[in-house]
C-alpha cells in the first residue's frame, strides 16, 4: 500500500503547508524524484461580480468514494508513490484554499500527469457544488469549464 | 417498493425536498422516479446516482435504493 491521504475539511488550510506537512509523514526513500502540486484558491471575483463568501456543498459518502476512485485510477494509470488530496467543504472566504493535490513519483512525467488527471477528474465527477454569496444575492455556480 | 430520494444543491431548492421516502410501486427507472416526484421530464443535464454510484436515465430501481439527483458539479 502506498501512502495516500484523502480528506474533506470544514476549516481553512494552507495548501502548500499541508503538502509540506504530509511530506514529513511519508517514508523518505530515494525513489521520490518528483512531486507535482496543485492548489486551488477561492477568487474574490467571478463573472464580474464580487463574491463575499462561498458555500461548498457535498454528498457525504459519495464524494469521498469518488475521490478515492479518482486517486485509485491515477495509481493505475501512472507510477504514483504517494498522494495527497485535500478539499474544503462548508463556508469558504475569498483567498482561502479550496483544494490541494500533491503526487509523488519517480520522475516528473508521471507526477505532472497524475496530478492533472486527479484535478480534472475531481472537477467533472466528484459531487461538490458551489453557492456564491454576492453583495445582494446568492447564486449557484452552474458548471465547471473543462480544463480551464 | 420503498425508495429514498435525495436532491442536492439547486435541485433541492427548486423541489423543496432534501430527502424523502417514496412508495415507488409501478415505477421502473430513475427517470420514472424523477417524473413522479417533480412532475416534469428528467433534464439531460441532471446527474443521477443510485446508492452513491452514477447511473444513466434508464437505470432500473429496486427496493431500498437511495436515488440522488443533482445538477452539474462545481468543485475544485
Furnish the topology, listing elements before pairings.
The complex is a heterodimer of chains A (148) and B (76).
Chain A: E1 4-9, H1 15-25, E2 34-41, E3 45-46, E4 49-58, H2 62-77, E5 82-88, E6 90-92, E7 97-105, H3 108-125, E8 128-134, E9 138-140
Parallel strand pairs in A: 1-5
Antiparallel strand pairs in A: 2-7, 3-4, 4-6, 4-8, 5-7, 8-9
Chain B: E1 2-7, H1 9-15, E2 19-23, H2 30-38, E3 47-50, E4 53-55, E5 66-70
Parallel strand pairs in B: 1-5
Antiparallel strand pairs in B: 1-2, 3-4, 3-5
SSE ordering of chain A: EHEEEHEEEHEE
Q: Estimate percent helicity of chain A.
A: 25-40%
Output the number of helix runs of chain B: 2
Q: What coarse outline of chain B follows from CA principal-axis ratios?
A: globular
Shape of chain A: elongated
- The level 1 CATH classification of chain A is Alpha Beta
Strand residue percentage of chain B: 25-35%
Largest beta sheet: strand ordering of chain B? 2-1-5-3-4
Rg on CA atoms of chain B, Å: 11 Å
Give the number of domains of chain A. Answer: 1
- Oligomerization status of the protein chains: heterodimer
Kindly report the greatest chain-chain contact and the residue count on each side. Answer: A-B, 27 and 17 residues
Structural class, from secondary structure content of chain A?
A: alpha+beta
For the termini of chain A, the CA-CA separation is: 33 Å
Number of strands of chain B: 5
Q: Could you walk me through the main structural features you see in this protein, from its secondary elements to its overall organization?
A:
The complex is a heterodimer of chains A (148) and B (76). Helices cover 30% and strands 37% of the residues of chain A. By secondary structure, chain A is an alpha+beta fold. Chain A has a single domain (4-140), classed as Molybdopterin biosynthesis MoaE subunit (Aldehyde Oxidoreductase, domain 3), CATH 3.90.1170.40. Chain B has one domain: Beta-grasp domain (Ubiquitin-like (UB roll), Roll), CATH 3.10.20. Chain B is built from two helices and five strands, in the order βαβαβββ. Chain B has a five-stranded mixed sheet.
Amino acid at each position: 500500500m502506498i501512502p495516500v491521504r484523502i480528506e474533506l475539511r470544514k476549516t481553512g488550510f494552507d495548501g502548500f503547508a499541508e503538502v509540506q506537512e504530509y511530506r514529513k509523514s511519508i517514508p523518505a526513500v530515494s525513489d521520490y524524484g518528483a512531486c507535482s502540486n496543485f492548489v486551488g484558491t477561492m477568487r474574490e471575483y467571478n463573472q464580474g461580480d464580487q463574491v463575499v463568501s462561498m458555500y461548498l456543498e457535498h454528498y457525504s459518502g459519495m464524494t469521498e468514494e469518488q475521490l478515492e476512485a479518482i486517486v485509485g485510477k491515477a495509481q493505475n494509470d501512472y507510477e504514483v508513490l504517494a498522494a495527497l488530496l485535500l478539499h474544503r467543504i462548508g463556508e469558504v472566504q475569498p483567498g482561502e484554499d479550496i483544494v490541494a493535490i500533491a503526487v509523488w513519483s519517480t520522475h516528473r512525467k508521471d507526477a505532472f500527469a497524475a496530478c492533472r488527471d486527479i484535478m480534472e477528474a475531481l472537477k467533472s465527477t466528484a459531487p461538490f457544488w458551489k453557492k456564491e454569496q454576492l453583495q445582494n444575492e446568492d447564486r449557484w455556480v452552474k458548471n465547471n469549464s473543462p480544463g480551464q | 417498493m420503498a425508495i429514498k430520494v435525495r436532491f442536492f444543491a439547486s435541485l433541492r431548492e427548486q423541489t423543496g425536498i432534501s430527502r424523502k421516502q417514496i412508495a415507488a410501486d409501478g415505477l421502473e427507472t430513475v427517470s420514472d422516479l424523477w417524473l413522479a416526484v417533480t412532475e416534469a421530464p428528467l433534464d439531460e443535464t441532471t446527474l443521477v446516482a443510485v446508492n452513491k454510484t452514477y447511473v444513466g436515465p434508464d437505470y432500473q430501481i429496486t427496493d431500498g435504493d437511495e436515488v440522488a439527483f443533482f445538477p452539474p458539479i462545481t468543485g475544485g
